[in-house]
């Protein structure tokens, strides 16, 4: 039987039949045979994404970051914040003794975090507010640092010398800030002639020369004190004038008209000069003077008399925040100073004794014949600290004290005494 072969690509003959006589379907026939729509359901397994811990650490909100395509309808800009997951710090128990620094760390303040409690004005420190970047260090003090700083055209700054740093540290101790009222420091002893008045003036000058606030020394000696004779007297007023004019003293200028001021800005209020009135200065009079001084001064030194049983002494000790006991370098002077401590302990002032400072005046007679170290060892077992006051011709004269012309060792001892006294004064106290 004969067959007819068609080459590839050759169109089929008209009539649409093949060699067997059957009609071959056209493309239109195949298209018309398909359904109009076709739906296929495909079920895929759910994708499970387990985020690692390092991804959770930088999660946005509570959900981990996942990759995905942004839909066409979600092209709006959205602000997000990255919150790192940090380990929670232990919460300190609330208490009255917690300061603002304990409630908010320095690092959190630098980040701009808001404190959980209202901040006090003391939190606005220069360290916190001033930008120290780009600022130059201050000019160094001291011979060698200053020379090197100048020789290198201000390129090498070693800072202050050790001696200058020690001086500034001592200044910072003397200039300690107080809150809540005046601090009262009586200077006393049972022995006369040991330099109590001189020590009072020296201590006051060392404080006033450094501190930026006001310091006053009150002569409360009912036996005609000589404290005002240690400075250039600028007034003839005494404590008696303050008592009689108390009602009319309403400002600091009114009060300063009754005191004498030396070059260190120490104010001195003289005692009664009339021997007929000296015994009249009693406890009530001292309280009037002390109340007025508390309105204008931060520290009030009181030069007490040699007697410790008169009424002025009782009023003085009731206000005292610390005491300075003056002792000479002889046997009887040291013994009487120690008996003063014993009397204070026996009369309920044990706290003042433990916080007391002993000023050992080594310029008195007999100092060269005794063992000063043994005297210091005795007082060191009873009080907080001891300071030796060396011999100085200007102090021995018993006249006006020019603080700047004192010997360097004398000034150093006075400054050390002032720093130790201020160290023992409370920073905060109810007015």
Automatic annotation (TrEMBL):
Gene3D superfamilies reported in the protein's UniProt record: P-loop containing nucleotide triphosphate hydrolases
Superkingdom to which the source organism belongs: Bacteria
Transmembrane segments: none
Stretches assigned to the CobQ/CobB/MinD/ParA nucleotide binding domain: 189-330
Residue span of region Disordered: 1-33
Protein name, entry field: CobQ/CobB/MinD/ParA nucleotide binding domain-containing protein
Lineage, opening ranks: Bacteria, Bacillati, Actinomycetota, Actinomycetes, Micrococcales
């Amino acid at each position: 039987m004969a067959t007819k072969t068609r080459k590839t690509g050759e169109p089929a003959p008209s009539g649409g039949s093949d060699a067997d006589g059957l009609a071959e379907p056209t493309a239109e026939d195949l298209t018309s045979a398909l359904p109009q729509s076709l739906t296929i359901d495909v079920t895929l397994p759910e994708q499970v994404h387990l985020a690692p811990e390092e991804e959770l650490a930088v999660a946005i909100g509570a959900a981990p970051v996942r990759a995905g395509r942004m839909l066409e309808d979600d092209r709006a800009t959205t602000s997000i914040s990255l919150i790192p997951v940090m380990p929670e710090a232990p919460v300190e128990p609330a208490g009255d003794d917690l300061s603002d620094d304990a409630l908010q760390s320095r690092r959190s303040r630098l980040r701009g975090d808001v404190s959980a409690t209202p901040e006090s004005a003391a939190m606005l420190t220069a360290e916190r507010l001033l930008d120290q970047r780009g600022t130059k260090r201050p000019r160094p003090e001291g011979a060698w640092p200053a020379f090197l700083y100048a020789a290198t055209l201000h390129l090498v700054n070693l800072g202050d010398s050790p001696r200058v740093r020690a001086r500034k540290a001592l200044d910072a101790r003397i200039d300690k800030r107080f809150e809540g009222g005046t601090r009262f420091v009586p200077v006393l002893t049972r022995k006369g002639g040991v330099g109590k008045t001189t020590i009072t003036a020296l201590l006051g000058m060392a404080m006033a020369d450094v501190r930026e606030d006001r310091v006053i020394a009150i002569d409360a000696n009912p036996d005609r004190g000589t404290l005002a004779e240690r400075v250039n007297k600028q007034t003839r007023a005494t404590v008696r004038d303050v008592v009689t004019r108390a009602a009319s003293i309403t400002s600091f200028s009114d009060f300063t008209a009754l005191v004498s001021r030396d070059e260190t800005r120490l104010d001195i209020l003289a005692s009664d000069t009339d021997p007929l009135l000296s015994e009249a200065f009693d406890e009530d009079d001292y309280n009037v003077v002390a109340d007025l001084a508390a309105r204008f001064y931060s520290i009030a030194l009181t030069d007490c008399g040699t007697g410790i049983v008169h009424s002025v002494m009782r009023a003085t000790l009731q206000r005292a925040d610390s005491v300075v006991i003056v002792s000479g370098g002889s046997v009887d002077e040291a013994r009487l100073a120690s008996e003063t401590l014993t009397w204070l302990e026996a009369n309920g002032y044990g706290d003042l004794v433990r916080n007391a400072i002993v000023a050992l005046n080594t310029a008195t007679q007999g100092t060269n014949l005794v063992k000063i170290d043994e005297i210091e060892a005795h007082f060191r077992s009873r009080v907080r600290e001891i300071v030796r006051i060396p011999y100085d011709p200007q102090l021995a004269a018993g006249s006006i004290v020019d603080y700047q012309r004192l010997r360097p060792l004398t000034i150093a001892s006075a400054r050390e005494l002032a720093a130790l006294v201020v160290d023992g004064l409370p920073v905060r106290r109810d007015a």
